[in-house]
Amino acid sequence: MPPMTRMIFAAAAISIAFAGQAMAHAHLKSAVPMADGTVKTAPSELDLTFSEGLNLKFSGIKVTGPDKATVKTGEGMLTNSGTTLMVPVTDKLPPGKYTVEWHALSTDGHKTNGSYGFTIAP
Questions:
Q1: Cα separation of 82 and 52, whole Å?
Q2: Domain total for the chain?
Q3: pLDDT in the model for residue 25
Q4: What is the pLDDT, as a whole number, of residue 4?
Q5: Are 46 and 87 in contact (CB under 8 A)?
Q6: What letter would DSSP give residue 57?
Q7: CA 35 – CA 23 distance, rounded (Å)
Q8: In a domain, 51, yes or no
Q9: CA of residue 23 relative to chain centroid, distance
C-alpha cells in the first residue's frame, strides 16, 4: 500500500475514533418548557431530556429570571430510565425571559454543560 493511502486510512480511523468519543457525552435533546419557546403559564417543573443516562449527584440546573435573580428550585430527580432530569420550581415565576444553565455528568463519566432560555408570556 502506498504511503499516502496509509496516511488517508490512518486519518479516517482517527476521525472515526474521535467521533465515537464525542457521541459518548450526554447532550440535551429536549426541554420542557421548550428552548427558546414561550409558555402562557409558569411551569411547576423543568424537564431536561438528554441523549444518555445521567449521574444525578453531579447533574443540575440554575435558573435565572428577568431580573437576573436566581429562581428557587427543589431537589432534582431522574426519570425516563435516567435520561430526563426533572427539577421542581418552588418560586412563583412572573412573566418574562428565563435562562436555564445546566450541567450534566453522564453515567459513563463525561461532563457537559449548556444553557437555553424560555419566556413566560404576560
A1: 8
A2: 1
A3: 86
A4: 56
A5: yes
A6: G
A7: 21
A8: yes
A9: 14
